[in-house]
Amino acid sequence: MEKVPGASEPASPPRWHSRFHSLPAKHKPCIKPSTMKSSACSSAGLRQAQWLTKTKLVEGLPPAVQGIMDNPALGLQELEERAKHMVSHARLWDTAEAAPRRERYCPVLFENLIHICRLMSGKYPSLSKRMLARNCRVAATWERESILLQVRGLSGILMNSMSPIPPVASKEEILATKEHVLETFYPIAPTIDLQEVNVYKELNDTGFRDGYPYSHPHTLFFLESANVLTDRFRPEQLRAKMLMFAFGNALAKAKALHGNDPKVLEQPVVVQSIGTDGQLFQFMVFQLNTTDLVSNDGVKNLVWIDSDQNLYERAQCVPEVKKGVVTKPAGISGFQPDTFKKFLALYLHGTV
Where exactly are the structural domains of the chain? Predict the structure, then answer.
């Protein structure tokens, strides 16, 4: 249709606007918490994460996990050779490349180890009541000495279960944490490296809808698979990230179960975490004892950490030949079965 000069324009209906539209951002009440995101690096490392989460550190794994490793009736030794074979598959045989890149072999190794763990479901059927969730998000908000804090973002690969992990510390051990003194960073602010963001709603969200059958967080897995060293978290930074997101998942779950009022929990929430770059492993068990986090006094949370555990010493992808003689054959050397047992024990924890 051609437009005729001087003719009236056709009437067009006004755009429909809902009366229930939200307020513009500038009119909403805004808070600015210091936020820990999945991409944030903590320069102060684990000590900073301990202060932010009001947590006492215990070196090594808890007795409940150690007991699984030492139980000969479970037959964990029978799986050691299979685990070594899976390491060789990830590092040597999974691709036609002469030397697989870390971004390739790290996820493959994780899937291989999880596959071995799932073989135990024949002996323990309740292990089949687990679910792996990828790219799931968590949000947890709390106050610490008048500082509003938040954990938010992607929390690695999360394994959920239909039943929670039982508490690993007794009531006496929990009460004994009252005497523990948390380390400070004066004159450095404890929120260093945290990002201050505009938030229009304090959110505590597990990332799953009500009624989801696998509603209890069990273990978080963090894969540091970047090829470039500077793009990966250092072990100390990775442990801090593991603690913050284990705490975030536990706090969001505790508030969903018991409400937002600060309190010492009658039934502590336990969340585990495993981090790896495809060779070096970090193991963690976190127990949330209290949601009363404002003051340094009173009951503290607990975390057990077994750090810097090599699964193997070296992967020789291409044989080294000198003067026609093979000096270093291709293969995996220095395999550490205890590291695999720790991975498997954390998987079995809560069922065995």
Answer: 29-348
